[in-house]
Structure formats: C-alpha cells, structure tokens
Design a protein that fits this description.
2 helices
C-alpha cells in the first residue's frame, strides 16, 4: 500500500476543474440573460459551491472499495 496523496490530489483537481466549468457556464448564461457583472459573479459562485460537493460525492461513491 502506497501513499494515497497523488490520487486524492487528482480527485481534488477534477472537482475544482469540473466545478469551475459549471461556474463559468452558469455565469455566462446569467450574463446573457441580464448583463450585470455582480449577478453573473454571484451566480457563478453559487454554481461552484453547489456543484463541488456533488462532484466530490460522485467521485467518492465511484471509488469505494466495496463497489
């Protein structure tokens, strides 16, 4: 059994990149509906905060040893 640090770091990177993609898309959609920088930033932040636990939970579920 080696160190799990590289795998955990890879999972964290996937979560951050996936959530960032969701946040950018949500911010662009918000901007296209109503051009406002503040609203677009808040929409992106909420999308990031909402999608990060979901992606992390999915990765955790898929990498369980029992599954």
């Amino acid at each position: 059994m080696g160190s799990d640090f590289p795998i955990r770091l890879l999972c964290l990177t996937v979560v951050i990149l996936g959530s960032s993609l969701v946040a950018v898309i949500a911010g662009l959609v918000s901007w296209s509906i109503e051009p406002g920088v503040g609203r677009a930033i808040v929409t992106g932040a909420v999308a990031f905060a909402g999608s990060a636990p979901l992606i992390f939970g999915a990765i955790t579920y898929l990498t369980k040893r029992e599954a």
